[in-house]
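Forgive a beginner's question, but would it be possible to get a protein, spelled out as residues, together with the matching structure tokens, please?
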Amino acid sequence: MTILIPAYQPDARMTALVRELRAACGHRILIADDGSGPAYDALFQEAREAGCTVLRFEANRGKGAALKHGFAYLLAEGEPAGVVCADCDGQHTAADILRLADIALANPGVMVLGRRDFSGGSEGVPARSLIGNTATRIAFALIVGVRVYDVNTGLRAYSADMLESLTRVPGDRFEYEMNLLTRCRRLGFRVMEEPIATVYERGAHTSHFRTFTDALRVGAALARFALSALAAFGVDMAVYGAIAHFGYGIALWRVPSGPADPFALYQAGGVAAGLFWAVAAARLVSGTLNYTLNRRLVFGGGTRSSPVKYILLAVLILAANYWLQLPLIGWWNWPAMPAKLLAEAVLFAVSFLAQRTFVFREKR
């Protein structure tokens, strides 16, 4: 088992943690210096003298880049057990680090998260950490569908079979750890939370999480899920509305309903035919857009079989969309747009969950 510590401009608490770990275990300790600069050479030299391996970036590239550099190094070295990642700022105790290492060893394929207590009973928790974690936790559960109490924890453990997948997750800065969580199901990983000590030293502010900039990065990792679907939905509605209104006489706000109506197609089954082509054409255009956005921006590529899976899903969603709308429009005389909106609302969650767990699920 390896303990990986990403570090950017650390202080004496990093070396204190190293000494404590050295005294308590025989695990390899790997430190990733994220371009701290010459002023911090003495601290990293102390770590080397204590038996640590130090990887170094010449310029700051971000916590995500430092972690992935460490994972790639361990893959090349043939790490047999796994890795536990801990911050260098004194927020994680040696006892908690070693406990998570043991849990990861016993649970292959499980992302083990150190769960801090943000209930308000923990003394010294900064308000920005309390508010930020609460807001992110709620958004994460709604969009991703995974309940994680401490989404921003830096203490995480992974078994060795997860390393290759960890190097392929996008993100170079603080958003990387959020991206790991958003992709855990598609990668085939389970998530386990283990309570740890909540340590915040008064007056010590060494965290390099830039509240506004990095919050936007983390938020963007979540918002891409919703924005891709929203863009495709807008295109779908536009194409559907144009065809339904101008091509087949399915009025946007009313449906023709009598023998004398100039749209005789309605009485002859034209609604069914017109509805099918409107739904099919709209789904073809919006589905192409949705797949492209999801593959490039949301789900990170998928596999070679993802296009085939997406087409299969699109056909099923198309059929469901059509059969949900047909009785509303043809039997109960609903206007086309409200019928379309209701069908889309019903199928949105189904489509999203299917893409996340089936279409873009990556093989480990």
Summary: The radius of gyration is 26 Å. Confidence is low (pLDDT under 50) at residues 202-206, 248-269. The longest helix spans residues 211-247. The beta strands are 2-7, 28-34, 53-57, 82-85, 110-115, 156-159, 190-195.
